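Exercise 7.
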Amino acid sequence: MRKHLAVIGLLAFTWSVDAQVSSGTIALSGSATFDLDTGATTGGTADDIVYQIISPFVYDIAPVTGAAIVNLGNVNFANVTVNQLQSQTYTISPIAFSPGTTVPIVLGVRTNAGNYAKVEITTFTTTSPFTATIQWVTFAPASLSNTPAPPTLILTLAGVMFWQLRRRFVRRPAG
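Solution. The predicted structure, written as tokens, is:
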């Protein structure tokens, strides 16, 4: 009985949570590659983006090793969801910016592992060592485990839990 209630409660909880793979903030120096799935600057084949200094006046973030990127425009980083990231059209073309570019810049990245990341360039320097500070959150693709549950499902689960508790604790009169 308790096991059934625990399973029902766990299903209701996990159904409505976005599955985060990694997140954090890091300062990338020029030509640094970065793996958005692990949060590591390994320089290996698992990396998803590279911060490049094209000239003292042009910089870019480019996808590498099978990743793809999209400029999400002027959006609130905190409000970007995995469902929004999945609905974008991605490209392998770099996203360029220059000293006059207003930050923050919000990007979407489909990683080479098949996950989706929101990336915010919070600052970048226009003199040596030419660093860009990014904040990122990487999500597993939206599925049953991270899509919000419909209200009818939540009400049904609540009804089943109430019925089970009532059966257990309400005693019938003898006779």
